[in-house]
Amino acid sequence: MLGRLNHVAIAVPDLAAASAVYRDTLGAKLSKPQALPDHGVTVVFVDLGNTKVELLEPLDAASPISGFLAKNPAGGMHHLCYEVDDILAARDRLKAKGARVLGDGEPKIGAHGKPVLFLHPKDFAGTLVELEQA
Amino acid sequence: MLGRLNHVAIAVPDLAAASAVYRDTLGAKLSKPQALPDHGVTVVFVDLGNTKVELLEPLDAASPISGFLAKNPAGGMHHLCYEVDDILAARDRLKAKGARVLGDGEPKIGAHGKPVLFLHPKDFAGTLVELEQA
């Protein structure tokens, strides 16, 4: 069922500073910052060739990553996003296996315009997992 | 400078349980567990097609991931490993940019038999970064 790693999301308190680290210190290729008001974040994509890192900065205190940054003020890895072919089939399989899908269990449109679901970190080795229909 | 994402390492308290989650719940392809006494861990590789997740369980209390698990008993994302072509050139560039290389700054032979270095999480958006010469 599990497909490619779509991205690793890193929550950061200062997107300009984190972008400078990836661009200037590590020499990576970066996108321009994109504000995604529906998701409460501004994002910069780091192109790694085989996958990407997404640097996420909260748009405001109500952002889904604000709580994480309150606990991790320097930033840190926030979630992993895996691709699946069929998100409804994936959800039903996960629920049948006893894994918890966050929210109401219905896919939402994610930051890439595709259906996504988030899974409970306690059921996945302490890691917040996003599934995205590829 | 920055190449592909070689792996995402997830530290886990129970490798058999985490493997079952990735194999049975998520339907991923897994390697057999390999004990790496030089690194203080037993590892299972999760094949994602474009990159991999490494599930790491400490071999004993002296393992480099034991402290992390004491703070994160359910497990969690431990580090990201990026590939570079030339690890000494990468190190020199990073030091010139003011980034801190952990340990004595000399590459060690990593879990894949290749030279690696670890970088200080505080200099990389709260993320422990491993560089591996590809």
Automatic annotation (TrEMBL), chains A, B:
* Record keyword Isomerase present: yes
Single annotated GO MF: metal ion binding
Reactions catalysed according to its record: (R)-methylmalonyl-CoA = (S)-methylmalonyl-CoA
Q: Which InterPro entries match?
A: Glyas_Bleomycin-R_OHBP_Dase, MeMalonyl-CoA_epimerase, MMCE/EMCE_epimerase, VOC_core
Q: Which CDD domains match?
A: MMCE
Q: Which UniProt keywords apply?
A: Cobalt, Isomerase, Metal-binding
Keyword DNA-binding in the entry? The reply is: no
- Could you tell me the EC number(s) of this protein? 5.1.99.1
**Which principal EC class is assigned to this enzyme?**
isomerase
Identify the residues that the record assigns to the VOC domain, covering every copy: 4-134
Q: Name one GO biological process term.
A: L-methylmalonyl-CoA metabolic process
Pfam families found in the cross-reference section: Glyoxalase_4
Per the record, the similarity remark reads: Belongs to the methylmalonyl-CoA epimerase family.
Q: Which NCBIfam families match?
A: metmalonyl_epim
Name by which UniProt lists this protein? methylmalonyl-CoA epimerase
